[in-house]
Amino acid sequence: MVELRRVEKRYGDGPLILDHIDLAAAPGDFVALIGPSGCGKSTLLKLIAGLSPVTHGELSVAGPDSGENAAELAYVFQEPTLLPWLTVAQNVELPLTLRAASAANREAAVTRALALVGLSSHATFFPRQLSGGQKMRVSIARALSLSPRLLLLDEPFGALDEMTRDRLNEELLAIRERQGWTAFFVTHSVAEAVFLANRVVIMAAHPGRIHEEIRIDLPYPRTPETRSSIAYQKLVAEISRTLRSVDSHGDISTQNSKPITQSAAPSASARST
Ligand SMILES: Nc1ncnc2c1ncn2[C@@H]1O[C@H](COP(=O)(O)OP(=O)(O)OP(=O)(O)O)[C@@H](O)[C@H]1O
Ligand SMILES: [Mg+2]
What we know:
Strand content: 15-25%
CATH topology of the largest domain: Rossmann fold
Number of strands: 9
CATH superfamily of the largest domain: P-loop containing nucleotide triphosphate hydrolases
Largest sheet: 6 strands, mixed
Bound molecules: adenosine-5'-triphosphate, magnesium ion
Shape: globular
CATH class of the largest domain: Alpha Beta
Mean pLDDT: 88
Number of helices: 8
Strand order of the largest sheet: 5-6-7-3-8-9
Helix content: 25-40%
């Protein structure tokens, strides 16, 4: 469904950001990307989404039958990026409006997407009336309203407390059971990566590259009990260890590698209110 072969990425004539990325995802895969800050995880998502061109190598994104049935793709950004003057329902409807879907289709898709994320009763609220977790769910509903076959998520739950994050992880997997999309999910949380994914790709920095891929053979559906299983905890420990070794080989200072990702991102504009 998604295939990158020997992909390299530079922005302009800047340094090599991604080097020799070989990565393929089959339909239904849930691929978690984890690695030190600045190793190119967001860049990789942008390449897959076609938001930025590949410098070298090949990238293909296709539907199961490929060709004309190219995958419908949706992107969930780290910030919920909701329009404050639109209601929840109008925000979710926006991508459908931009695609000129009929009013009846739009309404049905919005109703379905809001039900999926458990926010049907908040359709007429404005973003300022929502909690952080609810805003994120609206953002996910907006992505799901397109019935995507490929979902790209860039640290969607990074700013949330652990309990809310755990619950949203479970909700996300439940939605996936019903919608069956393929996912690329960027996170700084090993626990989250192992809980969600069937494949965890560990990246290293300078230049950004794939260090190792680990298969997560825990059965779906995954539940709170999954987190207390020995198999899960072993995987979390193993991946954390690998990640620490990757981190100490990069020249990222440890002060910078805190998993709080709000940091200095100048694009984070949603904080002003
Ligand atoms: N539009 C751009 N122009 C130039 N350089 C960029 C651009 N976007 C990202 N970069 C550079 O590419 C590198 C990788 O950035 P990217 O955002 O992909 O990292 P990341 O792994 O997502 O990091 P984080 O975990 O902090 O979100 C960084 O060195 C960054 O400065
Ligand atoms: Mg990023």
